[in-house]
Amino acid sequence: MTRVLLTDDQPLVRHGLRVLIADRPGLEVAGEAANGEEAVRLAERLTPDVVVMDIRMPGMDGIEATRRITAAPGTPPKVLVLTTFDDDAYVHGALRAGASGFLVKDMDMDQILTAIEVVAAGDALIAPSVTRRLIAEFAARPAAAPATPRPVDGVTAREQEVLTLVGRGLSNTEISAELHISTATAKAHVGRLLMKLDARDRVQLVITAYEWGLVTPGQG
């Protein structure tokens, strides 16, 4: 059973998610928080698997709460951030704070439930409508200092190809088609990259691909 902590300052949002989660096999609500401070306290006390985190809340915002929750010792819960399309700066901050994914609030509720399951399973999930724009902006470098691809120690040439495609936002299935390998092999390469680069999830691999110059803003 995946236990979920709902964090949002709007009671109607929490209520809607609670009702839907109650009808979803394998998911249950561990608790509710109306602000970041409460989310941090409840995450420590209730040890949920996933925290669904709003960004804009009175007091401690969702970014700072995400940072504190993901930095907790042991095995902290995954954080799935809810945001809006125009909140680019908030999304960048959420990724840096350790969020495993983010969604826009106008997505279908069933998609949000699926995202909770995906994040709980250890994957990352980013709303398709904002993925490339936000990651490109997140990884953009000053024009005066263009990125230069750097060698990736301990990563094979094939794994570097896979890392580049992950950075471009491709799924395992798309990577397998691009490289003419099986989906299982693509998934294995991604798993080895996560281990070799000590990355928490796929979001960190994307960020690494940009920071190392394997992908540049605007590529797709």
Give the arrangement of secondary structure elements:
Elements: E1 2-7, H1 11-22, E2 27-33, H2 36-46, E3 50-54, H3 62-70, E4 78-83, H4 88-97, E5 101-104, H5 109-120, E6 125-126, H6 131-139, H7 157-167, H8 172-179, H9 183-196, H10 202-211
Parallel strand pairs: 1-2, 1-3, 3-4, 4-5, 5-6
Pfam families: GerE (PF00196), Response_reg (PF00072)
Keywords: DNA-binding, Phosphoprotein, Transcription, Transcription regulation
Modified residues (4-aspartylphosphate): 54
CATH class of the largest domain: Alpha Beta
Please tell me the total number of domains: 2
Radius of gyration: 18 Å
Largest β sheet strand count, sense and barrel closure: 6 strands, parallel
CATH topology of the largest domain, which one?
Rossmann fold
What is the count of β-strands?
6
Report mean pLDDT, rounded to a whole number: 83
- Termini separation: 37 Å
N-to-C SSE series?
EHEHEHEHEHEHHHHH
CATH homologous superfamily assignment of the largest domain = Response regulator
Strand content: 5-15%
CATH architecture annotation of the largest domain: 3-Layer(aba) Sandwich
Helix content percent band? 40-55%
Indicate the multimeric state.
single chain
Shape: globular
Largest sheet, order of strands side by side? Answer: 2-1-3-4-5-6
Number of alpha- plus pi-helical segments: 10
Q: Name the structural class.
A: alpha/beta
Low-pLDDT stretches: 141-148
